[in-house]
Amino acid sequence: MDFKACYNNYINTVNTALIVNMPPRDAYPSRIHEAMHYSLFAGGKRLRPVLCLASFELFDSMTAKVLPVACALELIHTYSLIHDDLPCMDDDDFRRGMPTCHKKFGEAIAVLAGDALLTEAFAMASSIGNTGYSATIISMLAAASGSTGLIGGQVMDLLSEDKPIDVELLEYIHRHKTGKLISVSVESGAVCAGADSTALSALTKYGEALGLAFQISDDILDVIGDAEKLGKNVGQDAKLNKATYPSLYGLEESKKKLHETVEQALISLQGFGKKSGFLCELARYVAYRDR
Amino acid sequence: MDFKACYNNYINTVNTALIVNMPPRDAYPSRIHEAMHYSLFAGGKRLRPVLCLASFELFDSMTAKVLPVACALELIHTYSLIHDDLPCMDDDDFRRGMPTCHKKFGEAIAVLAGDALLTEAFAMASSIGNTGYSATIISMLAAASGSTGLIGGQVMDLLSEDKPIDVELLEYIHRHKTGKLISVSVESGAVCAGADSTALSALTKYGEALGLAFQISDDILDVIGDAEKLGKNVGQDAKLNKATYPSLYGLEESKKKLHETVEQALISLQGFGKKSGFLCELARYVAYRDR
């Protein structure tokens, strides 16, 4: 199967599992479930669950075992987008070409829909049952998403708006705001499959490089991307005076850095041989996407 | 030991565990950790963790085993208060006699502090380790707090502001907004201690009655309570046109209902004999408190 077909297969698996295991759209109180479904099924790339499934499949083919964790990652990602878009945060009106959750449902419901998706993530993850690694997985997800993970990155991003920031702070923000959840996606798949520490450490390196590549690529797309393809306005970072790779390093140097980061990701996978073909392609896809 | 001394003992145990296990106040980024500590150590009654510990002690004396779960319950409770107080929700300026989190730290940090406390709750709960009941406990906490639990109650509370509501809806709101987390506090303690299904079902009944008693008492205090003791304005429910037990049943009938509910709670504990003395006192304390 080629890369695109394989990626689409993963997406279908994740979407089916989400639909089956989430409280339905019309569950009481329906207003909150409509808002949760609206943001969750807005056509995301499902990058985090796909990473988790593909990492798991390096070691084990019984994906049903890891699927709840893959879904939990997407729920955490979606909650973080809803809250980031709020008027008191980035104040965005559009996301993936559609009105943001608070534009559609109002601010109160958007806050609560985010809260509910975050809570549902842990409900979903705990549905793997009382295995020998349940608490480990929950703890990894919470650490990656908490005040010293994703939320920490968002805090520093907010606090440094309209201020000159250095490379160190920029990297802290990116490593935390997007990097941690991407890394833990790869790691949690491997932990569910019982990977040994050597394999796990290689995959951690892959996940970190991929997270960085994702962010550099995001920054570059905000400069040279196509608003229609991206489903959001471009040039927003410059408008908000946000530090980005292009603003600190220049566009060409950022592209070079992106290329080196992809190479690092690929090198980390060498020990897995042919089996890691999909993850290699995925690194290139994340780095050189146009949306 | 008398009831007050015993309650204070539990509070000290919980506060010590929270201080030891939370990211410290000055952890980077310090702004978010200051906000989390500000709301968490604002002098709450620690009712939920105390219920969890006392329920556990009906069966087992090694409280260290259940302490992470007790702390998680307080983190969830604190997050829900911070988000409930936001301008887009109840828009409250004071909580426990102090400025609310968003008044002190701004709205963005308050949203993120709530998110971080919720996430930390699951990190904390997962620190019980990969036991035979870890996933069960996480799943119980998430169900009680999610879109068909606590959040569901908050949604219906918001959607019914300024509208006439019936007894059924009032009870849905209370059973979910406060009842579910109080019930699960009692239940999770018992599950950690390996209680059998008969004991568990008796404690569920106790938890449900206690949650209801707590809410009726809260509604009554908003009519006849002392603002200074409560640390918040009274008469808020009437001002916001909120349905409450007194507004639907009248004050005297509400007091009668409260009394009956306490009786139900006590009856549920009969099978535990003397050991349940503290939980009996706690039901009376919750119902007839002045703050």
Automatic annotation (TrEMBL), chains A, B:
Highest taxon listed in the record's lineage: Bacteria
Q: Which Gene3D superfamilies match?
A: Farnesyl Diphosphate Synthase
Write out the entry's keywords from A to Z.
Isoprene biosynthesis, Magnesium, Metal-binding, Transferase
Q: Which cofactor does it need?
A: Mg(2+)
UniProt xrefs under InterPro entries: Isoprenoid_synthase_dom_sf, Polyprenyl_synt, Polyprenyl_synt_CS, Prenyl_diphosphate_synthase
Single GO molecular-function term? prenyltransferase activity
* GO terms of biological process kind: terpenoid biosynthetic process
**CC per GO annotation:** cytoplasm
Q: Which family does it belong to?
A: Belongs to the FPP/GGPP synthase family.
* Protein name per UniProt: Polyprenyl synthetase family protein
Native source species: Candidatus Auribacter fodinae
